[in-house]
Structures are given as structure tokens and as C-alpha cells.
Amino acid sequence: MTSTDVIVVGAGLAGLVAACEVLEAGKHVTVLEQEPASSFGGQAWWSFGGIFLVDSPEQRRMRVRDSLDLARQDWLGSAGFDRPEDDWGRRWAEAYLQFAAGEKRAWLNSLGVRFFPVVGWAERGGYTANGHGNSVPRFHITWGTGPGVLEPFVARFRRGVAEGRARVLHRYRVDELVTTGDGSGRASADRVVGARGSVLAASAVGRGEGSSREVVGSFEIAAGAVIVASGGIGGNHELVRQQWPRRLGAAPETMLSGVPAHVDGRMLGITAAAGARLVNNDRMWHYTEGIENFDPVWARHGIRILPGPSSLWLDATGRRLPVPLFPGFDTLGTLEHILSTGYDHSWFVLTQSIIEKEFALSGSEQNPDLTGRDLKLLAQRVRPGAPAPVEAFKAKGADFVVASTLPELLHGMARITTAPLDPARVTREIVARDREVDNVFTKDAQLTAVRGARHYLGDKLIRVAKPHRLLDPAAGPLIAVKLHVLTRKSLGGIQTDLQGRTLSASGSPVPGLYAAGEASGFGGGGMHGYRALEGTFLGGCLFSGRAAGRAAAGAV
């Protein structure tokens, strides 16, 4: 049996950050990862690279006035902490806000991470000042997207490998955490002293592709501490449905996957068997703007549209969604409403003018200009036409309907839905909305929100189209997009203290066991509460991975 100072389970962002902290402390670290080397970096590699910062230089340059107090107001209004088990999540939220308003940007900057100068405005809310949503833009896009966030930690880990103090064992699937105790059988008395599991057959699949589960051997590795950074459950639809929150209604019959199938949540049960407490399993973050990938990498592969606020949002029957469920305003509020209709899809209706300015696609691979740090390609975003990946989906995607007239559009929508779409209702919604555009005065709250968004320089420049009639031929053609529910993040998980130590049911730390990233609800078993402000998932992996890595290194 081999040994190491610290085992990290999972080679995603949180795991790599934790491993780097162990290396910085002068210790040895072994990363165990069930997937092949092609998937090194985990889900962060696929991400858009959004980072939540408070009162940053980028915000100030865009004339955005932010503060820790305003961010705290927004976070608590969104989180809605209301359970006894939320105590640690609330503490993590406060610590993370201090980090986001303090050293976070300087720390990342020291590692070479840079940000796109225009700050995005995600999850705008639309309720009262104390309700859900970001009062100001805080979504900082990393120059290099997700791979750019990973880059300094991958480089540091590889230096550790060269130094002989780090190793990553791919195709090593943990099946059990090894514990030793005082013989009483009390979980709180047990110390985690390593991991054992199965060695899986070598696999040559590409990043994100399904790999075999053929077992060719076994392993056991001893360690002074184990950090679980294995991610969430979004690729395991069976588990998602088992834990689906009743407050959102019945789980959809069909869902797309925003993450690969290996994001299966299996380590959560294994960690619980070692004495850790799981909390808030029914808190999830799934998107409603999913579209089928015409070139899928994994099963049921979906891509999320990152919409500006102008598209008309209709349910499956053609009824307009209620205020303030506009594109980009309230993810889970929209999900709850859509599911209440009895259908699991909805529609955007828009124009070419809107798609050119307002549509972006989530994911590093869908943004080659930002991911590749290509200034020439980036310049095309301000020229006529939608970004090339968006145009590709418009031309090839099964969920897109493009038409020169409204009757033609309605016919195309009816062709790709089994729901009782009412053409007359859709027509009434569009015509009534268009009448409101003819005046600067309006009772249409969405148009008011669009005009308000354009007061923000970033939105006016590259994100929000000038209000116009959807049936204006000069803005055409007309476009309809069928939208699906897309699984993504777990907001609950392994409960941890502020050092990343896992906590037992009694509230005491499980000796030798730590957790970070999505597996820990990004800290504390759920630092987001019920809702997220976006840009906080990568940041949560950074913050919790750093805390767990430092604590584990200091304990061995």
C-alpha cells in the first residue's frame, strides 16, 4: 500500500486549487480521478469563465458603483436561508463576500488571470431591493474563459509533478474512504486515513465523452488527510429526479445535460458513509434556456443560451411568461413557472437584430475568441451578424425556427412541438408588445427593463438591442427558439466548516476528511442557499478549494 500526505478526490478546479495549496505548504499530494487524462480540469474547462467580483476596477471603469453592503443585500435576498442547517452556509456566504470584495481579484491577478473589460449583468432579479438578483453588473468574464481560470493551477500542479511531490492517478475510482477509530463504532470517533477503490480500464475517449467502467484492478492509498472535490450530480438524471425540490413542482419528463455523465454524485454517498453529513440535497441550479447541441460530446448534451433581456418569452402554449420572468432575470423562478404549466419547454421569439446583439452561448468551446484570447476574432462581436457559434446553431440546431413572416414562424414552431401551441395567442402577444414599442411611455415591464438596461454602458455597447417591433421587417428575419430544461449545478452537499473540514451529524469535524467545490455546496453544504447570483460557482471552487487545501496541509 502506498501513502501520501494528502489525497484529493477529483481533478476539477476545486481539487486542483486544493492540491496547489498542499504543494505550496511543502507537502506531497496525490489526486485520484476516475476519468482519463483528457478530462483533466473537470467542468471548469467547459465554463464561460464568469467570476463574481465586488467593487472591482472593471466595474468602476464601466461606471458601476458596487459595495460589500450591496452585494451582501443581494446575496441574502437571493439565498433565503431558512433552515437550521444553513448556519454554516451563511458563514461561508459572508466569508466569500469578503473574499470577492477583498483579495480575490488581486490573488487571481497575481496568478496571471485577467478579465474582459465589459462586466456582465446576470440574474437581474426584478423584484424589490431585498429580493433576488444582482442590483448591479458583477459577472466578470475571464480572458481565456474556463481554461484561463484553470491555467495557473494546472501549471503549478505540473511543477509539483516535476518536483516529485505531486501525482495524478487517472482511472482511479474511489469506492470507499478508509477510516480507523476507537472501536466504539461512533462515526465521530473515526479518522479518515486513506482511500481504496477500483482501477478502471484505460480509455482513449476525448474530453467529456463517456468512458468505460470496466474494472481491471484495485488500489488502496494511505494519507494524512483526504479532500473530496468530486463535483455535483448534474449528469445523473436519476439522482436529480430523486432529489428534485417539491417547491419547483414535478421534475421534467425530459431534460438536457449541461455536464457530462461522469458528474454523477457517487462520492457524496461514499463520503457520508465515512461519517460526513449531507445537507440541502434538494437545492439545485438548473437552467431553462437549454438547446440541443447539434454536435454533442456527451449524452443529451445541451448548451445554454446566455440571453439579453429583449426576447419575448412564451410558455409551451404561447402564453407570455409573467413579470418579472424576463430573459436573464430569475433562473429558478422561471423554472418553477414553466413546470407549473404542465410542459417542460418554452419559447423565445425574437429578431435577427436581437440575436446579433444579445445571444451568447455558455461554454469555452462556444466562445473561441475569448477562450483563445483572439483579439481579431473578438472584434467581430461588434460587427454586423451574430457570433459564428450562434449562427451555427441558428442554421443547424433542431430548436431554431427562422422565418420571414409570422405565419411561417408559427408553422415552424408547431412542427417541432407536441404541446398545444395556440397561434392566435402568440400573435396577440407579439402584436400587443409591438404596440408598446411605439411610445417611450409603456406599461410593458419588460420594455421598461430593456430601456433601463441600456442606461448601463456595457449593455448598450454589446449586450442589449435597441427596442424595436418584432414584426418590423428591417429587424428580421423572425426567430423562435425552443428552450429545454438543462441540468447543471448542485447547491447543497457535504457540510463543512470554514476550514473545509467535513462535519458529522453531531456537528463535530470528521478527523482527516475535508471537502471543497460543488461536492460541498461550494462551502458549508450550501453557501448559495436557494438561489445563486451567477459567477459564483467557479469562485466557490476557488475559495473552498483554497481553504480546504490549506487546512489539510496544515494538519498533516
From TrEMBL:
Transmembrane segments: none annotated. InterPro entries: FAD-dep_OxRdtase_2_FAD-bd (IPR003953), FAD/NAD-bd_sf (IPR036188), KsdD_DH (IPR014614), Succ_DH/fumarate_Rdtase_cat_sf (IPR027477). Coiled coil: none annotated. NCBIfam families: PRK12834.1. The keyword Flavoprotein applies. Residues 5-538 form the FAD-dependent oxidoreductase 2 FAD-binding domain. Keywords: Flavoprotein, Oxidoreductase. It comes from Herbiconiux gentiana. The keyword Flavoprotein applies. It comes from the Bacteria. PANTHER family: 3-KETOSTEROID-DELTA-1-DEHYDROGENASE, KSDD-LIKE STEROID DEHYDROGENASE RV0785. Gene3D superfamilies: FAD/NAD(P)-binding domain (3.50.50.60), Succinate dehydrogenase/fumarate reductase flavoprotein, catalytic domain (3.90.700.10). This is FAD-binding dehydrogenase.
